[in-house]
């Protein structure tokens, strides 16, 4: 079994990562390219093609039996297409057909990046052994995936658990997805930075104007930076509480670049969750940082591939 490998792909607005992954979740060979997110769709596919080419050049490629893809969403697993909010050049882009063609006809499993992260955390991380979990990726966007009844629950299209586009502010900003007041519009990294800058925060000389820079300022006590993280935490808490109320999860796992802010995010998140998750059956809800780290997307794409192919 150990010689049976999955080609795992993790596609986001910032980077396209690939790896050959074995059945115990080890990443044997890796490749990565920046995502040309503002470029035409063919250029994005060309970057993905380079990642696949680098993996295919490995002596271990012959062990590849299938491809698992976790992509920024929305995805359409039935049609094999993707329309990531943060990659405008891909709208109903036939990703599965393109990848199958470039991998010599290997079977391809497609899920949203949040579902991939949920698969990783349920297999090897903070949601291991849990019957019900919401796992979230908070980075350039906000994605999510669900574990229900001890099983990964991608839904028919591969998007179930996409918490980033739950509306938590009925009169809020319009979101690129077409909705209004979405969790992502408040809690994603770029939106945390945008809110802080609009509030008058400025990075230091040669400083970091990203959410990581805001987190550092919040840690140092900057009130505007802290307020931007408080607002993000409230948006996340509202979405988590709504999800827990609907499907009775035991744990919410938060990963992605923004979660690296640590207690700057998690302290206000736990406080806000106590305020929103008040019904008896959601009061015991745990919140934990993800454990699978930056490899969650790749480990999860492989895990989803094995799990869903085995159904």
Automatic annotation (TrEMBL):
It comes from the Bacteria. InterPro entries: ATPase_NBD, ROK, ROK_cs. PROSITE patterns: ROK. Belongs to the ROK (NagC/XylR) family. This is ROK family protein.
């Amino acid at each position: 079994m150990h010689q049976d490998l999955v080609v795992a792909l993790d596609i986001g607005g910032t980077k396209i990562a690939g790896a050959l992954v074995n059945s115990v979740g080890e990443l044997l060979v890796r490749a990565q390219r920046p995502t040309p997110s503002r470029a035409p769709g063919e250029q994005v596919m060309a970057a993905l093609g380079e990642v696949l080419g680098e993996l295919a050049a490995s002596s271990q490629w012959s062990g590849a039996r299938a491809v698992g893809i976790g992509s920024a969403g929305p995805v359409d697993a039935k049609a094999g297409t993707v329309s990531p909010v943060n990659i405008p050049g891909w709208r109903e882009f036939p990703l599965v057909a393109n990848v199958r063609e470039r991998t010599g006809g290997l079977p391809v499993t497609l899920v949203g990046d949040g579902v991939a992260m949920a698969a990783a955390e349920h297999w090897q991380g903070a949601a291991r052994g849990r019957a019900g979990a919401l796992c979230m990726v908070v980075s350039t966007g906000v994605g999510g995936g669900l574990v229900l009844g001890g099983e990964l629950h991608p839904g028919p299209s591969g998007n179930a658990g996409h918490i980033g586009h739950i509306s938590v502010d009925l009169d809020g900003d319009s979101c690129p997805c077409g909705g209004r007041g979405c969790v992502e519009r408040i809690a994603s990294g770029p939106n945390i930075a945008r809110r802080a800058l609009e509030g008058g925060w400025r990075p230091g000389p040669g400083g970091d104007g990203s959410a990581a820079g805001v987190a550092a300022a919040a840690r140092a006590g900057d009130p505007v930076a802290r307020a931007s993280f408080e607002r993000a935490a409230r948006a996340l808490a509202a979405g988590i509480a709504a999800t827990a109320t609907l499907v009775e999860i035991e744990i919410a796992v938060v990963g992605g670049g923004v979660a690296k802010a640590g207690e700057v995010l998690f302290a206000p998140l736990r406080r806000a969750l106590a305020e929103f998750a008040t019904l008896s059956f959601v009061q015991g809800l745990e919140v934990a940082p993800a454990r699978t780290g930056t490899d969650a997307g790749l480990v999860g794409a492989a895990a989803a591939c094995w799990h869903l192919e085995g159904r």
